[in-house]
Amino acid sequence: MMELLKSETRTSIPVIKKELEWLKAVIEFRFNNYFSSAEDEDIEKVTPPDLSDDDSIYARVILENDFNTTERIILLMALAVHVSPAIYDIFFTKNSNFDRGFTVFGGVTGEAHSGFIPTGETVSFIVCGRDLEKRFQLLDLFSDEHPFHTQNILSLTGIKDSEPVFSGVLSISKEYLSLLAQGKAYRPQYTSSFPARLLTTKLSWEDAVFDEYTLSDLEEAKVWIRHGEEIMQHKLLSKHLKRGYRILFHGPPGTGKTMTASLLAQEAHMDVYQIDLSSVVSKYIGETEKNLAGVFDLAENKNWILFFDEADALFGKRTQVQSSNDQFVNQQVAYLLQRIEDFDGIVILATNFKDNIDSAFLRRFQSVVYFPKPRMEQRLELWEKYFSGTFDLVDVDLEKIAMDHEITGGSIINVLRYCTIAAKRRNSNKLYTDDILKGINKEYHKDGVTI
Q1: Per the database record, which ranges form the AAA+ ATPase domain (predicted)?
Q2: Which of 23, 29, 310, 313 is deepest in the core (most CB within 10 A)?
Q3: Strands (E), 54-168
Q4: Does 172 share its domain with 258?
């Protein structure tokens, strides 16, 4: 999908308009054929628009997946309910013998949407008519191996165990709805079912200061993020290597773990979502697993990085079973371990205390990156990056400040904010040593230390 978004493609609106006209003709053709006494006719008789020279995202999805006429109709039917719902009004035709709709039409109406929403039965009616053999073949298009599923394009949803498989609602994924209708990646908002926030940054790698060992470990992760898809296309390597990549960031607070997650995503043109663990972890049995399942299910087949900060709260060490609660906690950890193991994307866990992470998790990380407190030379570089050129420094010796105060980059940013407020209160751009020391003292106070 990212290749589609990065490439130069024109809007899909003109071609979708033509496709909707074709779908309308297909529906009318099937209705006329069904209500006549003639035998079923193939919908291939209704010629689809030619997409061979079309460079829109919609056309590229069709052509690159080599979708045939039936697959193209199904995709269009799933899209049409969002962009042209009136096209389905014809399905409200009643069976006069029973004063109700025709069973063969399928379909449902929503709670807020009064229009007709197609189901698998609707699809079968349009593309198969009365042909039972085609109806059986249609099942293959909704299998786990078909691109509709593997690329998370569309599916039949809401199927109850006791009801027919084609009773499921034909649903296009939010990802592809956004891609085809708007030409942009889908970015979900924070909700109870997806307790995660999109992380962004205005910084670049040039703004960051890292230990040389940290940089070396990060380079490994960057190479996989950049070339992982290419690696997994190798027949022999794909036999031995699992998809996905798991990274552990550990080190004191304020050393740049969250910023680095954003930078990795920025460089790879990916979105990174920080999971809100306070909303995920539940004291009720099964709820934590359910909440995590919702996050991972939505993230499947998307070009996202999932970022778990303070991860030891969720991925902590398992304990000896001395009570039913201990057993419950251990089951949670085992479940999370399996979901991360099976996830085919990038997962970053960050913790201040590596020793708190369960050893079973540690063995499954491809990269473990340590973020130490910055050394004196690195602290000086940070002070200069943040303060030089920002203010008119009056008798400020940044080298002495860096030497005397062993604080992290996050704390230096907090000092910068304090100094900005101090200068603004004076309505001045001048900054003094005393301003910086007061800001540092406020940081020390957070840890119960005074200077």
Answers
A1: 243-375
A2: 23
A3: 94-95, 100-101, 154-157
A4: no
